[in-house]
Amino acid sequence: MPAPLEPSTAPAVTNDLESLTADRWPAKSALREYAEAVVMALLLAVVIRTFVVQAFKIPSGSMLPTLQVGDHILVSKFAYGIRLPIVGTRLVSVGTPERGDVVVFVYPVDPTKDFIKRVVGIPGDVVQIRNKHVYINGEVWDDTHAYFADGSAPGSGTPRDMYGPVTVPAGQLFVMGDNRDRSYDSRFWGFVGQEEVMGKAFLIYWSWDGEDRWVRWDRLGTVIH
Q1: Is 33 among the domain residues?
Q2: Out of 8, 19, 117, 132, which one is annotated catalytic?
Q3: Number of structural domains the chain divides into
Q4: Residue span of the structural domain in which 139 resides
Q5: Cα dist from 186 to 38, 166, 181, 198, whole Å
């Protein structure tokens, strides 16, 4: 007759191991887990805001009709490369602003402010404005986004309507607002350094009419061109 099987000791060994593991790695308290989750969320938000995407609100009508007062937009911080925060040094370059891009940049006159305009001239371009028409390298630039709030009649020799010709220096950009008659831009204060460009605007994620207190639902999700 075969000898009866002895009871297995495996469960006892398993229980011992589980007990040792529990002693070495004590269970986290709910408060600690919550705190860690909040810290990780904050760190992730900082990384995203610094290197990936940042939200801005449009405060003026200089980019009408493309962007309206109260539009909330997303700007790709990675569109032209990765920059170190504060010092602004570019670590990785993945491209440069192109003519027609809508960009956010540090305002050259007051570095505490951020401006948004459309790139009109890139390094080497000869920019000239005659009777409100923009010429790039001697050719009329057919910008379908241009809007003239004051009609088509040009002013008497003002930079707004009559400007240049000027050659955009290396590493610089010539920018203008789409609302050509109501925009304070490169026609008045000069060029923008490419290193001062923070990113490219690409999406309207929210739009709020501050006066009438209603949401512009038709603008939500609009891609910025």
Answers
A1: no
A2: 117
A3: 1
A4: 38-223
A5: 43, 11, 13, 17
